[in-house]
Amino acid sequence: MAGSKVLKQSMAPRLAAEGSLRTETPTRKEKVRSILLIDDDDALCSLMEDFFSAHDFRLDFVHEGATGLATAFQGKHDLILLDVMLPVLDGFEVLQRLRERSTVPVIMLTARSAQEDRIAGLNIGADDYIVKPFGPHELLARARAVLRRPGHLSATSGLVIEGDIELNTKTREVRRANVPLAVTSFEFDVLSLLMRSAGRVVSRDQVATVLYNREATPFERSFDVHISHLRRKLETDGRTLIRTIRGVGYFFVPANEGAE
Question: How far are the Cα atoms of 18, 155, 218 from residue 169, in angstroms, in the given order?
């Protein structure tokens, strides 16, 4: 815990220095997005509250895991920033319990840079992670990127929706235009990952990390086979929703872009 405090304290001058700097001038009035920060450092929370407020966000904070979980369950926030090292319940346990009832986007804040810790967070259901110490503008950019994702997640229903594709994370069912689609368990997990990242390329390593807890091997072709089957199930009138980006990964076409 002492090491975590040192890292947090090292971030305070950066937050104080950058907090009053605006990188963008709003061109139109938008709905203020709300963020819940669950972190046990009071000074850091206050600094981040000021920083995000200067960039048109409302940030609330709590200092321990159990209270943070109860607050998150209220469904009043668009995004959760979740520290790993927390009293009462640590961040991993908070996230695991949160995912039983909510699909609200979560960015993990961690001093742990080991790959297994990052993988653990992603496997439980984190949308992104950032390793401390970090620059506040990097965190702001990550938060905006997560909130811009086109896939609509309903915290109460467990639905991920893109166009006429509806994926239910609670029942593990997929529907297109309200017609059930038969998918395997692997295909469901791949589709969930791609739809939650609609409009962004998901690398083969990301798919392997989330599904297999390891990176993809150079000669592995099982992903291509599964995604080929899934792509055919989603095609209609010759339109393809899942694109393969050669040598990189896969791309789910968001509803606002149309399909090929």
Answer: 39, 10, 31
Angle between helices 222-234 and 185-196 (to 10 degrees): 80
Backbone angles phi, psi at 62, to 5 degrees: -135, 160
Task: With H, G, I as helix, E, B as strand and everything else as coil, classify residue 10.
Answer: helix
Question: Is 152-252 a CATH 3.20.20.70 domain?
Answer: no
Measured from the Cβ of residue 225, the count of other Cβ atoms closer than 10 Å reads 10
CA atoms within 13 A on the CB side of 159: 13
Coil vs helix vs strand at 80: strand
Please report, for the chain, the start and end positions of each structural domain, with discontinuous segments joined by +. 2-148, 152-252
Instruction: Indicate the SS3 state at residue 159.
Output: strand
Helix (H) or strand (E) holding 162: strand 159-162
The predicted-structure confidence for 190-236, as pLDDT tens digits, reads as follows 898 888 888 888 888 877 766 665 565 655 566 678 888 899 999 87
Q: For tokens 């006429």, name the residue.
A: 164
Enter the CATH code of domain 2-148: 3.40.50.2300
Write out pLDDT tens, residues 74-92: 989 999 999 999 988 999 9
Prediction pTM value: 0.56
